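Summary of Year 1 activities. Much of the first year was spent building the evaluation harness for sequence design. The harness presents a backbone, in tokenized form, and records the residue chosen at every position. We chose the following record to illustrate the format because it has been used consistently in internal testing since the harness was completed.
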């Protein structure tokens, strides 16, 4: 960092600051009406790379936190007996390292080299890394990698928007391009945050599920492909949607290699294709079942129960090209 110089009368004072290190810090904040917080760490180190107050440019070569503990309790919050408790968070062994942090009026960028911690619920983050660039009309997350004892996620994501405020107020207008590759989701990690999923009801969830996803477009108009593979169920799907509005549904969905296995039922479908369209205020839906040589067509309408539940009713179905034969 270049020395900063300030003139005071007839004197000139120069100073240079490259590294700041805070060791063995212990901070507490207690307010029964707000929250109780406890933060401690063994070492927090920052290495300066650039600081220009005139152009508002700040750069850090390194920001590293070592062996930290964080505890936050919200008075009066409902207590969660099992799993992650958002009203009482406690992390131990928190470590992170950031490289090449850059800020200027147009850009905020940083590389998270590594992050890890243990949470009192039992959840453990072994590794998290990514490169992030935020500009006035785009956000880029590259080389995202998350690893726990049961889960592995790899992702790259790009968001394009008219302004940062659009991310909060008009998410449906944000253009999204994301890709998940070589991703494994462990049920044990999911249960830390959704413990009710193991409450039975005759449903058995696989211990690990492999996922691949590509998505491009907005939440209302997009093209996507998904692959899910596990010991109990899986499928491959492609979708091209022009609208997901229930009153103006337009697009196609193709499902391939669907399978489901249980002790009492095994299901396998080679291919299913569904197409929805609206023409002259008439809503139509078409389903193709190539494995049975069957095409089902019909009109439908949507009714609302409150503002949450949509009910799809098929008025009629026509069956054509049927050449389904019973086995044997």
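For this record, the design step produced the sequence shown next.
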């Amino acid at each position: 960092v270049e020395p900063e110089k300030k003139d005071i009368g007839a004197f000139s004072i120069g100073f240079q600051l490259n590294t700041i290190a805070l060791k063995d810090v212990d901070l507490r904040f207690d307010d029964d009406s707000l929250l109780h917080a406890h933060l401690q760490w063994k070492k927090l180190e920052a290495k300066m790379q650039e600081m220009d107050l005139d152009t508002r440019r700040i750069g850090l070569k390194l920001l590293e936190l070592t062996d930290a503990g964080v505890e936050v309790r919200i008075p009066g919050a409902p207590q969660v007996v099992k799993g992650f408790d958002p009203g009482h968070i406690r992390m131990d062994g928190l470590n992170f390292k950031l490289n090449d942090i850059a800020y200027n009026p147009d850009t905020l960028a940083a590389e998270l080299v590594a992050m890890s911690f243990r949470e009192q619920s039992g959840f453990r983050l072994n590794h998290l890394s990514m490169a992030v660039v935020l500009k006035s009309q785009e956000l880029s997350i590259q080389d995202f990698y998350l690893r726990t004892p049961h889960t592995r996620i790899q992702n790259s994501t790009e968001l394009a928007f008219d302004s940062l405020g659009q991310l909060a107020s008009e998410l449906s207008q944000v253009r999204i391009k994301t890709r998940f590759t070589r991703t494994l989701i462990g049920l044990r990690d999911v249960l830390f945050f959704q413990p009710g999923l193991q409450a039975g009801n005759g449903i058995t969830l696989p211990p690990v599920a492999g996922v691949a996803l590509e998505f491009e477009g907005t939440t209302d108009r997009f093209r996507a492909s998904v692959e899910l593979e596990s010991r109990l169920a899986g499928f491959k799907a492609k979708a091209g949607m022009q609208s997901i509005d229930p009153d103006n549904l337009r697009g196609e969905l193709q499902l391939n290699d669907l399978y489901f296995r249980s002790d009492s039922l095994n299901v396998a479908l080679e291919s299913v294709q569904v197409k929805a369209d609206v023409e002259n205020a008439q809503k139509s839906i078409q389903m193709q079942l190539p494995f049975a040589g069957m095409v089902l067509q019909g009109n439908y309408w949507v009714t609302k129960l409150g503002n949450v539940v949509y009910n799809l009713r098929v008025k009629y179905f026509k069956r054509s090209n049927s050449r389904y034969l019973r086995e044997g």
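The two ends are 82 Å apart (CA to CA). Quantitative recovery figures across the full test set are reported in Table 2.
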